[in-house]
Structure formats: C-alpha cells, structure tokens
Amino acid sequence: MEEQIVLQNVTKTFNDFWGKPRVTAVKSLSFSIKKGEIFGLLGPNGSGKSTTLKLILGLLYPSRGRIAVLGRLPGDSMVKRVISYLPEQDYLYPYLDARETLDFYGKIFNLSGQERRQRIDFLIDLLGMQGYQHRAVGEYSKGMARRIGFAQALINDPDLLILDEPTSGMDPIGNKEMKDIFLDLKSKGKTILISSHLLADIETTCDRIGIIYEGSLIGIGEVDELLAPYRQESHPLERFFIDTVEKEKERQNAEIKSARESEVLPEKPEEVDQKVLDKLIRKK
Ligand SMILES: Nc1ncnc2c1ncn2[C@@H]1O[C@H](COP(=O)(O)OP(=O)(O)OP(=O)(O)O)[C@@H](O)[C@H]1O
Ligand SMILES: [Mg+2]
User: Fold this and answer.
1) Pocket test for ligand 1, best of 23, 86, 214 (most atoms within 8 A of CB)
2) What are the tens digits of pLDDT across the range 253-282?
3) What is the pLDDT of residues 34-64, one digit of tens each?
4) What is the pTM of this model?
5) Is 25 in the pocket of ligand 1 (CB under 6 A)?
6) Is 152 in the pocket of ligand 1 (CB under 6 A)?
7) 3-class secondary structure for the chain?
8) Partner of 195 at 20 to 30 A CA spacing, among 233, 270, 272, 276?
9) Below-70 pLDDT ranges, the chain
C-alpha cells in the first residue's frame, strides 16, 4: 500500500527565549501511514501527539529528522489542497453561523458558489447540524463546535485527514456518528490520522495504532494483533495501553538505576601526610 505520511527519526525541541533547549516534545519518531487506513496516535497528556500532528502539517519544523507527506515536504501547496486538519481547540469566528463559516472556508479552497452550497448542505446534513445551522457559532456548546470544526475540515473533500482529539466533548450519540463518518470516509479511500486518549473511540475505528510516551514511540501495530492477548479483558485497549506505558516506565527506571550503580564515584582524595605538610609550612 502506498505510504501517505512518513516520519524518519523526527525530533522536535522547543527552545526558550535565549535559544536554549527547553522541552523535547518528540524524540526520534519513525513511523508511516498508508493510504486508506485509519491510524490512531495514543498517548498520555503531554506525550507529544499534537506536536507530531503539527509537524506533519508543516505548522512546526522538526529540529532533526525528515517528514514526507504524499511524497512531498509538509506544507507543500499541492499537499495543502488535499489535506485537512481539525485542531485540538476550535478556532471559529464567533459571529458567523454554521453556513457562513463553511462558506468562508469553501472560498479559501476556491469552490464555486454552487459547489459551496451543495457541499454545505451535504455537511450540515452529515453532521446533524440542521437545527442550529443559522445560529452564531460563538454560542455553540463544545460538541456543537466540534461538529462545525469537523465540517470545516471536510469542506475541500480532503484525501488525508489529520484530526486532533476529534470526539472530545461529544455526547455518546455524537461520538457514534463521528465514528461512523470516519468509517464511511475510509470506505471512500480516505486516509485518517487521529490523535486521542479516548481509547474506546480508537479501538473500534482504527486499523493501526501507535503509542507515544514522553515523545517516543513505545508501541505500534495492527489493533487486532496488539489486542489479541487482551481479548478476555473488558476493555482490551485500555489494558494494553496501561501495560505498555507501565512497562516503558519500568524500563526507564531500570535504566536510571543501572546508570546510577555503574557510576564511577570520585576517589576519596588522599590524606596529606602531616609531616609533609609541616615541612611545606616551615619552608614558607
Ligand atoms: N509551543 C510550545 N512551546 C513549548 N513547549 C511546548 C509547545 N507545544 C508543546 N509543548 C510541550 O511539548 C510537550 C508535548 O505537548 P503536546 O501538546 O504535543 O502533547 P499532547 O500529547 O498533545 O498532550 P494532550 O493529550 O494534553 O493534548 C509538552 O511538554 C508541552 O508542554
Ligand atoms: Mg494534544
């Protein structure tokens, strides 16, 4: 299968005002995403998920390593036409309603008036926003804002979708609807990268997952394969996720311990012979 996104040894360090390294958010990350798959990037808070997505989108530059999106550099103008992004936080113009918001983004993609109208009708319907499509988006609840954000990400009928916590704040019905939309998009050959810590969402929709912890990838594979040993559990992905993170913590602690043990302690300085000292003092 064709690879849509490739990361090779990608490291991202945020520097402070003086240019000194402050946080290494992503460490030597290497993985790829194939055409037509739904890939889930999982990890605890602050593990580097959003940073990784921003690097793929070309919104941040890697400190080291290489990223290719559709065989080009992230941020390439051809890539921008076929990629879409749902950010972690919604950035909406509060005084526009849903239709005006989508119309605005449709214009950015140079869609004609007729294309915009058809696409907006389709998306309002797809995301179940008919009831509030004429209300200013500034009044929307979290779940409603997430829907318009997702509709906005779909306005250009993208081939590659990058979604940061797409279902956060969604009620169970909205959650299920979103998952159905992901699967429908996949059936149309779209590629989707989702970051989330809502494990239930990932388990039922993703083909493959990667677990990121303190910026490093600590597990990657097909969901079915990774979860096979955990199928007896009531929440297999939750168990697998916790186990993988715990094992990594243990590995890191063991590494620190053995480094401490093998540390060469500075030798005790030799005691100065009192007679020699007396001689030296007398000489002065
Ligand atoms: N612009 C920035 N400047 C400095 N540090 C940053 C910046 N953006 C992210 N970081 C740091 O990088 C690390 C990873 O952050 P990131 O937002 O990628 O995590 P995340 O996995 O998306 O977390 P969450 O689940 O909470 O959304 C954190 O330590 C964060 O403080
Ligand atoms: Mg994040």
Assistant:
1) 23
2) 888 888 888 876 555 556 667 776 677 667
3) 999 999 999 989 999 999 999 999 999 999 9
4) 0.87
5) yes
6) no
7) CCEEEEEEEEEEEEECCCCCEEEEEEEEEEEEEECCCEEEEECCCCCCHHHHHHHHHCCCCCCEEEEEECCECCCCHHHHHHEEEECCCCCCCCCCEHHHHHHHHHHHCCCCHHHHHHHHHHHHHHCCCHHHCCCEHHHCCHHHHHHHHHHHHHCCCCCEEEEECCCCCCCHHHHHHHHHHHHHHHHCCCEEEEEECCHHHHHHHCCEEEEEECCEEEEEEEHHHHHHHHCCCCCHHHHHHHHHHHHHHHHHHHHHHHHHHCCCCCCCCCCCCHHHHHHHHHHC
8) 233
9) 1, 264-272, 276-277, 280-281, 283-284
Distance of CA 173 from the midpoint of ligand 2 (Å): 23
Q: Which residue has the tokens 């360090």?
A: 13
